[in-house]
Amino acid sequence: MFLLRDDISDIARLLNSGALICYPTDTIWGIGCDATNETAIERLSELKGRTPGMGYIILVDSMEMLKQYVARIHPRVETMLAYLNRPLTVVYQPAAGLSPALLHRDGTLAIRIATDQFCQELIREFGRPIVSTAACKADEPFPPTFGAISSEILGAVDYVVKYRQDDKEPHTPSTMARLDRHNELEFIRE
């Protein structure tokens, strides 16, 4: 069952206050926060045990939102995103408006247009991108289902989304790609 509108509004208010959430994405369960809030991102990095410069994936709800945070989207990538039926994270040279703590040490930023209805609605209600990182410590394998998330992670976030907790089908991270120096699509993770 899909969450009621006021539940999504409550979660958006939590994100707006700097909270960390554990939530189902269009791929695996993730830990998320406001992608524009430095304090929330620092708290997330501490929880994950991540070193600076590793970068994070952020989720947006649409091509329009993506264009607000990326300096240039190659027409081939834009066409592919419009017609692709599975989640694809693309690495870009970012524009402004997001925390530098999200960037990889090479200055790039990984962004995915969420394909899941829950994620799209949450991002739309929130009005800004949300960080999406696997709901586990940096050195641990990603959890393929909600039941595989450690109690340490669940206890450290401010809110755990109820939607899709009962799903038993294992999920995997998104495919990840970037344009190489010849403007050819290079897959980093399949």
Tell me the CATH architecture: Alpha-Beta Complex
Number of helices: 6
Instruction: Measure the end-to-end span.
Output: 30 Å
Strand-and-helix sequence, N→C?
HEEHEHHEEHEHEEE
Low-confidence stretches: 1-5
**In CATH's first tier, which class applies?**
Alpha Beta
Domain tally: 1
Q: In terms of quaternary structure, what is this?
A: single chain
Note down, in words, how this protein is organized:
29% of the residues lie in helices and 21% in strands. It has 6 helices and 9 strands. Strands 7-1-2-6-3-5-4-8-9 form a 9-stranded mixed sheet. The longest helix has 12 residues, at 5-16. The radius of gyration is 16 Å and the shape is globular.
Which characteristics define this entry?
190 residues, alpha/beta, DHBP synthase, nine-stranded mixed sheet, 6 helices, disordered N terminus
Set out the fold topology:
Blueprint lengths: L4 H12 L4 E4 L4 E4 L5 H11 L8 E4 L2 H7 L5 H9 L4 E5 L16 E5 L3 H10 L3 E5 L16 H6 L2 E2 L14 E5 L5 E5 L1
Parallel strand pairs: 1-7, 3-5, 4-8
Antiparallel strand pairs: 1-2, 2-6, 3-6, 4-5, 8-9
